[in-house]
Amino acid sequence: MSRGLPPSGHQRVRTARGRTAASTRWLERQLNDPYVRKAKAEGYRSRAAYKLIELDERFRLIKGAKRVVDLGVTPGGWSQVVRKLAPDATVVGIDLLPTDPLDGVILFQMDFTDDRAPDLLIEALGGAPDLVLSDMAANTVGHAQTDHLRTMGLVETAAQFAVDTLRPGGAFIAKVLAGGADNALVAELKRNFATVKHAKPPASRKESSEWYVIAQGFKGRQTGSTTTAPDPR
How far apart are CA 132 and CA 134, in angstroms? Predict the structure, then answer.
């Protein structure tokens, strides 16, 4: 477990009228989660902030970034981390759900798969991003295979956005499910990035099927045998 977590003291939650057993278990897990307590103590909007912090400690992704896109920004924990570690960066976030305003972050409430979204994000960013983050996951329908395919569809869309917009040398991080990205996506990322790795940060619950794919060293957009860079800064 990551250093600096508050001490644990198990709290039990009584089942209340109108609350299902499942929601009672969820509430008990939240109350006893050291990352939830730490997030509240340190002012982060979600425990997911520590997933990005731990990934950054391992892969050195954020320091020096000038332009960052946060896909699936709500509730804003990842953008908070970027603002803390790269305070001069321009950060643009998008989510289908509403996000409370974040100091220094430009927010869009819209579907990322909307054809207008990529141009709006890059226009707000003012140029090619150094880093594209995606913590997106599709709304679950309770069927594991369907949920996996829906989420991986979002990951593939995010990866294509990264390949279309990143500056040379940039990086892409995305949440994937069931052990990692599929072979076709990994092959595409390896064609466009110097290194592609999978990681499960300590803040990701052991029982969760989520992993993260980290692609670094973007090679630039390729047209046939010619590599072209996005518009210069």
Answer: 7
CATH of domain 45-228: 3.40.50.150
Only one residue has tokens 């329908």, namely 141
The overall longest dimension of the chain from CA atoms, in Å, is 65
Residues 6+ apart with CB under 8 A from 159: 172, 174, 185, 188, 189, 215
CA 222 to chain centre: 25
Residue type, 133: L
- Evaluate if residue 227 carries a pLDDT over 50: no
Quick one: average pLDDT of 26-39? 68
pLDDT of residue 224: 46
pLDDT at residue 140 in the model: 67
Q: What single string gives the DSSP state of each residue in 130-197?
A: SEEEE---PPP-S-HHHHHHHHHHHHHHHHHHHHHHPPTT-EEEEEEETTS--HHHHHHHHHHEEEEE
State the pLDDT at residue 233: 43
3-state secondary structure of 70: strand
Domains of the chain, by residue range, sit at: 14-43, 45-228
Q: How far is CA 221 from CA 76, 92, 128, in A?
A: 29, 22, 12
Cα–Cα dist 33/8, whole Å: 8
Q: Indicate which residues carry an active-site annotation.
A: 175
Find, among 102, 68, 50, the residue nearest to 173 by Cα: 68
